[in-house]
Hints:
The structure holds 2 protein chains of 2 kinds. By secondary structure, chain A is α+β, with helices and mostly antiparallel strands. In chain A, 40% of the residues lie in helices and 15% in strands. Chain A is built from 5 helices and 4 strands. A 4-stranded antiparallel β-sheet of chain A has the order 2-1-3-4. In chain A, β1 and β2 (87-88) form a beta hairpin. In chain A, α1 (2-24) runs antiparallel to α2. Chain A starts with a helix and ends with a strand. By secondary structure, chain B is mainly α. Helix content of chain B is 57%, strand content 1%. A two-stranded antiparallel sheet of chain B has the order 1-2. In chain B, α7 (159-187) runs antiparallel to α10 (224-240). The longest helix of chain B is centred in the middle third of the chain and has 29 residues, at 159-187. Chains A and B meet through α1, α2, β1, α3 and α4 of A and α3, α5, α6, α7 and α8 of B.
Amino acid sequence: xxxxxxxxxxxxxxxxxxxxxxxxxxxxxxxxxxxxxxxxxxxxxxxxxxxxxxxxxxxxxxxxxxxxxxxxxxxxxxxxxxxxxxxxxxxxxxxxxxxxxxxxxxxxxxxxxxxxxxxxxxxxxxxxxxxxxxxxxxxxxxxxxxxxxxxxxxxxxxxxxxxxxxxxxxxxxxxxxxxxxxxxxxxxxxxxxxxxxxxxxxxxxxxx
Amino acid sequence: xxxxxxxxxxxxxxxxxxxxxxxxxxxxxxxxxxxxxxxxxxxxxxxxxxxxxxxxxxxxxxxxxxxxxxxxxxxxxxxxxxxxxxxxxxxxxxxxxxxxxxxxxxxxxxxxxxxxxxxxxxxxxxxxxxxxxxxxxxxxxxxxxxxxxxxxxxxxxxxxxxxxxxxxxxxxxxxxxxxxxxxxxxxxxxxxxxxxxxxxxxxxxxxxxxxxxxxxxxxxxxxxxxxxxxxxxxxxxxxxxxxxxxxxxxxxxxxxxxxxxxxxxxxxxxxxxxxxxxxxxxxxxxxxxxxxxxxxxxxxxxxx
Lengths: 208, 304
């Protein structure tokens, strides 16, 4: 329902913009009336999203760091198994063109609900991405490719992530053959006192 | 004078106060440069080729809303090429209004493609303000200055340069204001408490997958007075930034403060607000010596 309303909201924005354009050519008039209509619409639509905190992108609700941060936290961690069966961390750039900021929440929310066969197909895709990125980074080509045009000036993701594979020496040398998906959960105060106080639950392991 | 007449007068004075053609043109350049920066730092068309399983939770209404259907990476690549060309045109001021319109429409389609498999709202990804801003500028004389082939002498500006610039500036203020409202609606003034700020700092710094800068945030989290000060300052910035729309003098304080605010959030919470470069839209890019200035004030009877 929100998608429909938001889509109609943007169409309305385009419609009043069209009226402003037509008024400039004298097809409708007077122009100032339609400029005012456009301004009223833009203010009303954007403030409706912001005040109600119901997103109608591009009229966004901008909920940055809203709410109370929970003391219990959790996240998903995807790791690879190499040919020796050793677990290896994966640089966040390996998932490009997907952003870590979308992939990991998607894994958290959706992946677990998929049928096993669908999970296997997703994992096969992710494993191919990870292995391809590993081989490229190990060969000195860097992890990921989204800096291909702008180099170090490329826009970061909204959440900053550490570059685990910052040099070829830091990249796992052996081929990735499987993926594991863990859910990690912790109490913030406990983890603050002891960084190892994290509970790991295996959600999925892909076939080798 | 009735209340309605006074309100109408205030509305006119706010929206139709004259602005220089250069400031409006600078907004055009900033918005198109921002969108180019993001597009050239991503590969949005490739996301159309994600395996179908990724699209499991995407409702049909969201697909129709943005006209996005998976499996058309080639088409999306062609659309992105057109968007890039339009943004370059807008940046240079070549067929600027048509380019602004085309770019805005294509960005409305492309930006959600980046996140649609997870969420239909790409608000954090840096293209929200260009969509709204470029569409607004397409209705205005945004290439009266700072354009290729425009000569050195730019148009003076006036009310027709004022309202589109002011609306684009309002859009840039909204992330601050709405984020402040989100905090108050969800947590009240207690959002700024030392305990809540500490919890946010721990959340943003304890997970090694999510943090580049860890020491500053974790250090701050152990100092309740600083946490409370940070919370109060953050809330004040969110709710007070909109003053830049009404007071040019306040910009001397609030613009550097906002830049500092983003830098502090970056190093203590690891969040990069990708629209921060658009703060430059509040700089007065007006005429330099020798160029004509717009009239000092809007004519009192600008309503048709």
